[in-house]
Write a structure and sequence with these properties.
Layout lengths: L1 H30 L3 H10 L6 H16 L10 H10 L6 H16 L10 H10 L6 H15 L1
Helix pairs in contact: 1-3, 4-5, 6-7
């Protein structure tokens, strides 16, 4: 019984030491980021999460920061403004990146053309699908509402 207890505490000590080494490595990875990126990731992953949630968050956010930025080439300035309003930095790196990819994809593909609708139906669809939805939700909403009018 005594040996089992000692083995258990030895295992706990090893795990704690590994966690400390991992946290130091993570802190080192964060220190190589720009000050803006450091603030962004630290706001997204506060240590108050506890070690396991913090580690998971840091892995996710560091992967997002270290991977390619979503491609906004070929997007008009007005569409880019719309995308940026839909995807604020307050989301954190991984959610921001996912949002940007989704919204940029929506504006890069063919958007619904409302010109075939009567003025009343066009107003009705636009009232049902405000631009504040963001490009991907707006596009899905408009397509759904236009199909309902057919």
């Amino acid at each position: 019984m005594k040996k089992t207890v000692y083995k258990f505490f030895a295992l706990v000590w090893i795990l704690m030491a590994m966690q400390s080494v991992w946290a130091d490595a993570m802190d080192d990875a964060v220190s190589r980021l720009t000050p803006e990126q450091q603030n962004w990731i630290n706001q997204s992953c506060p240590r108050s999460f506890g070690p396991s949630l913090w580690k998971s968050c840091m892995n996710r956010e560091l992967n997002a920061i270290n991977s390619a930025t979503p491609d906004a080439s070929g997007v008009s300035q007005s569409d880019l403004n719309w995308v940026n309003q839909s995807c604020p930095y307050s989301f954190g790196p991984s959610l921001w990146k996912s949002c940007m990819e989704r919204e940029l994809s929506a504006v890069k593909t063919r958007m619904p053309n409302l010109d075939s609708l009567s003025p009343n139906n066009k107003a009705w669809v636009l009232q049902s699908c405000p631009y504040s939805f963001g490009p991907s939700l707006w596009k899905n909403c408009v397509n759904r509402e236009m199909n309902a009018l057919r």
